[in-house]
Design a protein that fits this description.
The chain has 130 residues and is mainly alpha-helical. The chain has helices at 2-6, 10-17, 32-49, 54-88, 91-115. Helix 2 (10-17) packs antiparallel against helix 3 (32-49). It is elongated, with a radius of gyration of 28 Å. Residues 106-119 and 122-126 have low confidence and may be disordered.
Length: 130
């Protein structure tokens, strides 16, 4: 059914039409949640016209939304666990310290030769690398 195929695209089309570049719809009135709710309502109307029960449609909608939310939460939890593991073995701090030391050492070495030994901590020299 082509009408059922168009329903998922409706929120995207509304967002594009309400964007600043196109400007056919008021931007403030058509936010992402509003467009999603409009798309959901149109989907329910299309399902009713195709002789599907509203209870079954809402059950499938909630099941799909729950599955999508579950996947996102699992991905966030896995990323947090990975970051905590890197921090617990000291890898994050080591990488940051190594990067800070390597960049700072390179700049200091270049400035010392250009500033002829002046104290770099107080920025008394006028070399181009500071």
């Amino acid at each position: 059914n082509p009408i059922k195929a168009i329903v998922p695209i409706i929120p995207l089309a509304l967002l594009v039409l309400a964007s600043k570049q196109v400007g056919l719809l008021p931007t403030k009135a058509f936010s992402v949640p509003v467009c999603m709710l409009i798309g959901t309502a149109i989907g329910i109307v299309v399902a009713i016209f195709n002789k599907q029960k509203v209870g079954d449609v809402s059950k499938r909608f909630c099941r799909g939304a729950g599955d999508g939310f579950c996947d996102v939460v699992i991905l966030i939890a896995a990323a947090a666990l990975f970051a905590a593991g890197m921090k617990s073995i000291g890898l994050t701090g080591t990488l940051v310290d190594h990067e800070r030391f390597s960049v700072g050492r390179h700049v200091r070495r270049r400035c010392r030769s250009l500033c002829y030994g002046r104290d770099l901590r107080f920025r008394q020299c006028r070399c181009t690398c500071l």
